Amino acid sequence: MKKLIIYSSIAIALIVAFVIVNQLSESQANAKYEEDAERLYQTAAKNLDSETKKQLKDENYQNIILPDEFEQKKDSGEGFFVYFFSPTCPHCQYTTPLLNPIAEEVGVELFQYNVLEFEQGWDYIDSTPTVVYFENGQQKDLIHGGIADDVVANMYTQFLTEYK
What we know:
It is a single chain. Strands 2-1-3-4 form a 4-stranded mixed sheet, with helices on both faces. 51% of the residues lie in helices and 15% in strands. The radius of gyration is 22 Å and the shape is elongated. Helix 5 links the parallel strand 1 (80-85) and strand 2 (110-114). It has helices at 2-31, 34-41, 50-55, 67-76, 90-106, 150-162; strands at residues 80-85, 110-114, 130-135, 138-144. By secondary structure, it is an alpha+beta fold. This is Thioredoxin family protein.
């Protein structure tokens, strides 16, 4: 009986030690993301999906619009573009670095809405990647699909130019 108590105590101590080490390593891993998580998503890194964390320092994902900001822009009635993406979407991962220079060349600001973090964004789209133009608080037009070639890139250029 004493052996059982000793072995049980050792097992419990090992489990507790494992949990503590795991929490410490997770805290250290999140520490490198804290500043960017707060700047882009106004939250602690621990609250973000791991795929979102991987994009925090990526220059292609620096114009994030949060749901409250999105609603304010819609309520203002001004025209604006929103790029709905998911960090887990391979088409988005390929398209984003191609789409941002197109928006810059056309001279439009392209807000980025992360539907992995803010699922209410799915109310406006059926798939990612999708760019939506809003005007007077309403969705006026959209274009969706990954940029696979120059033809599709030109379609995005025309779309952004039309509503510029």
